[in-house]
Amino acid sequence: MAERATVIVSNRGPVSFRRGPDGALEGRRGAGGLVSGLAPLVAGTSTTWVAAALSEEDREASASGVVEADGLRVRTVALDPEDLRQAYDVVSNRTLWFAHHGMLDHFREPTFDATWFAAWGAYRRVNLAFAEAVADLAPEGAVVLVQDYHLTLVAAALAERRPDLVCVHFSHTPFARPAELAVLPEAVRAELMGGLAAHAACGFHSERWAAAARGCARAVGHELTTFVSPLGPDPADLASSTAAPACGEALARLDGLVGDRAFLVRVDRIELSKNILRGFLAFDHLLASRPEWRGRVVFGAFVYPSREGVEAYRRYREDVDRTIAEVNERWGTEGWTPIVYEPDDDYLRSVAALRRADAVVVNPIRDGLNLVAKESVLLNERDAVLLLSEGAGAWDELADDVVPIDAWDVVAAAGSLHRALAMGAEERAERAARLRRVVAERTPARWFADQQAQV
Ligand code: G6P
Predict the structure, then answer these.
(1) Which residue ranges does UniProt annotate as crossing the membrane (predicted)?
(2) Protein residue with its CA nearest to atom 12 in ligand 1
(3) Which run of H or E residues covers position 302?
(4) Mutate to test the pocket of ligand 1, among 148, 170, 270, 310 (most ligand atoms within 8 A of CB)
(5) Do residues 425 and 383 lie in contact, with contact meaning Cβ atoms separated by under 8 Å?
């Protein structure tokens, strides 16, 4: 089969532009899981990555069409800033994200009023602008890999403009069950699911999300062709991070800070679906119910602010800050801070924390995959126990060798923390070895090949 040209389309792109010392625009690569996995695969190839211009410098770069940045061919799409804000904050993050994560309490207050429908108009315009950019640059017969809920309507718009292109969609999130998506107006659901049905295939990290999406499509008269292809970390990329001097320095600092205590670690964006608060409440209950752990364990919370344009996220961040302060106030002593909170997005420090952890907490309510869980398995140097909740897509692959942690029941979760922290060395080593084997099976290269195999 002749290789088809490939175009990747995502809201947040692989690089962000800045002005260098000489005043010229420079593209710097971001550190997200998808970017670090895909960038090495597509660098130096003819693949073009189309993404929203998220800053003034990105907008300036868009004027030059496709630009070469950090080995990647990137085309930023300049959008009306207010349209982008409405499409991103209101439709993508405040509506679709919460629906796909089953967080229906966010629909308690009236949502679908004239203001919301204006934002939906902006979402349509943003999707259309992406479709126009792709239509302009995609080589004849190219495969277009559309990423995530921000861009559900791109393929339908492309079908009219460029019927030669084949679009494949991939959702890195979970997908709402039909009863959950039903909180959205029926016409909106029909347009969204029709948008997904305009793809040759729709991919998911878990069959659970694929089945939900098929059900949502059927409910409004569409059929989806789905496939399941979980992503995995890129071992070479992780190795280059651990080799960085700043990672070694962070590791030494954390080592000094933890000493001979047990080190419980979590690494997350401050994101409601990650269920960060209940993790701290479980820790609080552990200290209350099992005094033997007081002074013997440090919970490293490497959680950093995200999507602060949405009020629910800002409030959640305040709750996180307050809960940490309360737990530390309740249990802390002269020489022991129970929760060490470092709320900056320092990637190499987070890598160091996962290397040093004795147990890693991943307890989302629902999560598309959770790449951090898989990264921790490959990075960790102490046979850390992975605590994982069933809501994570990665559960499908890892369940046999994790310690399950209940996302909702704080008392049960405290029991899981105890079980993980108390586990003997032999069992930890056996589980960690099996987890490493399972995680190594899924690389970004395999994930990328699965997308292209859909056409
Ligand atoms: C997470 C999700 C992705 C999503 C991304 C957007 O990583 O797993 O599905 O595309 O967030 O993040 P952003 O910071 O751009 O809102």
Answers:
(1) none
(2) 12
(3) strand 297-304
(4) 148
(5) yes
Q: Residue 143 is which amino acid?
A: V
Q: What one-letter code names the amino acid at 337?
A: T
Neighbours of 410 (CB within 10 A): 19
pLDDT at residue 2 in the model: 55
Instruction: Give, as one character, the DSSP assignment of residue 31.
Output: -
Whether residue 150 has pLDDT greater than 60: yes
Query: What gap in Å lies between CA 395 and CA 279, rounded to an integer?
Result: 18
What is the rounded distance in angstroms from the CA atom of residue 276 to the CA atom of residue 413?
12
pLDDT for 275-329, tens place per residue?
Answer: 999 999 999 999 999 999 999 999 999 999 999 999 999 999 999 999 999 999 9
Nearest CA to 321 out of 307, 348, 295, 339 is that of: 339
**149 secondary structure, DSSP code:** G
Residue 384 CA to residue 263 CA, distance in Å, equals: 9
- Please count the other Cβ atoms lying within 10 Å of the Cβ belonging to residue 237: 17
ipTM of the complex: 0.96
Could you tell me the two tokens for 9? 């389309």
Q: 173 CB less than 6 Å from ligand 1?
A: yes
d(CA 22, CA 345): 28
Determine if ligand 1 sits within 6 Å of the CB of residue 428.
no
Return d(Cα 245, Cα 235) in angstroms, integer. 18
SS percent in the chain: helix, strand, coil, step 5: 50, 20, 30
Cα–Cα distance, 406 to 419 (Å, whole number): 13
Closest atom of ligand 1 to 367 CA is: 8
